Every structure is written in C-alpha cells, then in structure tokens.
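User: My instructor asked us to take a sequence, write out its structure as tokens, and then describe one feature of it. I'm not sure where to start. Here is the sequence I was given:
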Amino acid sequence: KDNHVWVGTWNTKKLMRLNSETGNVMQTHNISARPYGLAIDGDGHMWVASRDPAGRLVRVHPEDGEIYATTHPSGQGYGIAVDPLGKVWMASGEPSTVARFDPDTNQWTNFGLSAPGYTRGVAVRRVDDNNGNLIGAEVFVAHHTWSGCNNNGHHRKVTVIDALSLQ
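Assistant: Let's start with the prediction itself. The structure tokens for your sequence are:
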C-alpha cells in the first residue's frame, strides 16, 4: 500500500515498514516468530513464514500488528505466497509438502507432493478470462535436492497446483 516496503528482521523478530524513497523506518511491529518469508494479501495483511519457531505462519495487520499465528501441518516452513482467492500457500522445506491455509476457516489443506526433493519457493499466477476477470490461479512449488544431475549438482522440479480444483 502507498508503494512502501515491508521487511522482516530475523534476529529481532520485527516487521518494519520502510519509506520507498528514503529507506527510513516508518513503522515497526514485534512478532512471535523470526521472519523467513513474507507475502501480502489483497486486504493488506502481511503473512510471515518462519523457520524459528519451525513452521510458524503469522498474520500481521498493517496498523495493529500480529493478530493470528498457527503452524504448518508438517511442523516446518519455507516459501510463502498468497493466491488471488485469499488463500496462503506455504512450502515445508525438508518434509517435501506444501499446504494451503484458509484465513476464513483457519484450516490447513496439506499436499504431499510426489516430486523429488524438498519444497522451497512458492509463487502464484493469476488466471483471467479475456475480459480480465479472475477465473482461477496456479500455484508453483519449487523442489530441489542436494544431490542430482545437472551442472551444479542440484536436481530441480516445479509442481503446479490449480488453486480452485486443488489438483
């Protein structure tokens, strides 16, 4: 909102709103977890993925601060993204899963993925019809292993999940 930037600080468990022109801190929120990933939903709430405590998902209101926290079903957390339907997607890392959190019901849907390797990054692509109306979304989940068969010794794969059908 207003083209300012939110950043998290691992050691101090803070979210800070920075002025995009000056870099000055405009606002600070203390939270219950160390930020590892950060995504902002359509209502302006920040969602923080943490690896300490492991798998913690924290919802932060831009003015009021932390308003909710839960834990990924695997007990681990890594990458995070919010889809245009308002659902939060969080990779688990080593457990090789991704889960979708529904803020309306406070419920998780966990996906064990058949792709090789740990789940890391999560990205979402909005799908529109020819008139620009939202008709769905695709969730991209990146995997990797420490051993593999390419130039730098890593094996990579991306899983795509339809955010509506969950397949």
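For the description part of your assignment, you could build on this observation: The chain has a mean pLDDT of 91. Try explaining in your own words what that tells you about the chain.
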